[in-house]
Amino acid sequence: MKVIDRLNLAAEEKKTLFSFELLPPVRGKSIQSLFDAIDPLMEFKPAFVDVTYHREEYVYKELQNGLFEKSIQRHRPGTVAVCAAIMHKYNVDTVPHIICGGFSKEETENILIELNFLGIENILALRGDAAKGEASFTPHPEGYAYASELVEQVTKMNEGEFKYADETGFKGGFSIGVAAYPEKHMDASNLDSDIDFLKKKVDLGADYIVTQMFFDNQKYFDFVERCRTAGITVPIIPGIKPLTTKKQLTLLPSIFKLDFPQELFTEAQKCKNNKEVRELGIEWGIQQSKELIKYGVPGMHFYSMGRSTSVKDIAEAIF
Ligand code: FAD
């Protein structure tokens, strides 16, 4: 079932959807670790499960003559296959993330045809981050610079317009989700322009939005208000990441350019070990989730990062 149909149904029934995001296993590792992370969360009947996509990394092998040979490796391969495996094992809808970075338009079209063939009806369309070692995002020469262009390609395919392949066998369209940043995307000059570009993604066919993680609900409430004022009417699902280690207090702001509320930061600093941080993270996550549900969010989307224990504890308290 399409995510947008689930969201519309949940809105009619005044329900809040539960969903979570996983990373594909590292190359060479078993998919079992992923199943172990999913098992404890199935009792909360996830509406969908997202699986991230990871662009290639360059590997340099030293040759005899002192030169280097550059080759490409995927550190976490198999998003499409992992989605299909989860869907068939758990009978749950999966949402593969599709990124612009590292892909030509033709390769993207092929991935989408493959997804359709597998019966996967949803995607989250993203630009992707800069490749390791690159200062800023460089588009594939035959690919896209922005997620909005990817959204446009998927919408055109949904309408039957194919550029490279024979469309025979394409069974219908995708529900398209896109990303948004209540605390502004790191490359954006300001929040208003970021919201204008978000609106462009929606105008080109995105039918729902998932936000970057945030720890201060007011940031989300203000963001939703600004989006509505800008004319964005689609559901905006909050993304929640439970704090689990002290290191994340510096790591998460540096990677995602977000702020920790002073209260959470101070309490986490006082924790004697990561067990205490984890307990604090769960308590914060429960309070955050309760307030968001009271506000009327369409769903609660959790960044599990492959570890489900904190998400399970929060889900137990709110669903
Ligand atoms: P875009 O919407 O293209 O925006 C990127 C930047 O460009 C923004 O600053 C925006 O304001 C600006 N911009 C947009 N359009 C224009 C324009 N026409 N002209 C000028 N500026 C413009 N990354 C992965 O690699 N794999 C994943 O699986 C993944 N999953 C994610 C899931 C979620 C829910 C979120 C929030 C992020 C995820 N990311 C993932 C990270 C994401 O790829 C990065 O944040 C990336 O830097 C931006 O992606 P985007 O789709 O938001 O880009």
Automatic annotation (TrEMBL):
GO terms for cellular component: cytosol. It catalyses: (6S)-5-methyl-5,6,7,8-tetrahydrofolate + NAD(+) = (6R)-5,10-methylene-5,6,7,8-tetrahydrofolate + NADH + H(+). NCBIfam families: fadh2. The keyword Amino-acid biosynthesis applies. Gene3D superfamilies: 3.20.20.220. This is Methylenetetrahydrofolate reductase. Its cofactor is FAD. CDD domains: MTHFR. GO terms for biological process: methionine biosynthetic process; tetrahydrofolate interconversion. Keywords: Amino-acid biosynthesis, FAD, Flavoprotein, Methionine biosynthesis, NAD, Oxidoreductase. It comes from Flammeovirga pectinis. One of its GO terms (molecular function) is methylenetetrahydrofolate reductase (NADH) activity. Its EC number is 1.5.1.54. Pathway: One-carbon metabolism; tetrahydrofolate interconversion; Amino-acid biosynthesis; L-methionine biosynthesis via de novo pathway.
